[in-house]
Amino acid sequence: MQQHRVPVVVEVILERVTNISMGTEINAINEFEELAQNRADAPTAIALLD
């Protein structure tokens, strides 16, 4: 297996009040925005679904 060393960008958004009520459980997450439906909404996230 060939290894690559590439830079990685990690984005973390912390909000003190807005999302704190969701708790720490992964199944209790509420999406406040519409999910991506087509390539224009999130080109890199769902490009493989076409």
UniProtKB/TrEMBL annotation:
Keywords, A to Z?
Ligase, Lyase
In short, the EC number is: 4.1.1.47
Superkingdom of the source species:
Bacteria
Give GO MF terms, alphabetically.
ligase activity; tartronate-semialdehyde synthase activity
User: What is the protein's given name?
Assistant: Glyoxylate carboligase
- What organism is recorded for this protein? Zestomonas carbonaria
What is the organism lineage in this UniProt record? Bacteria, Pseudomonadati, Pseudomonadota, Gammaproteobacteria, Pseudomonadales
Give the gene symbol: gcl
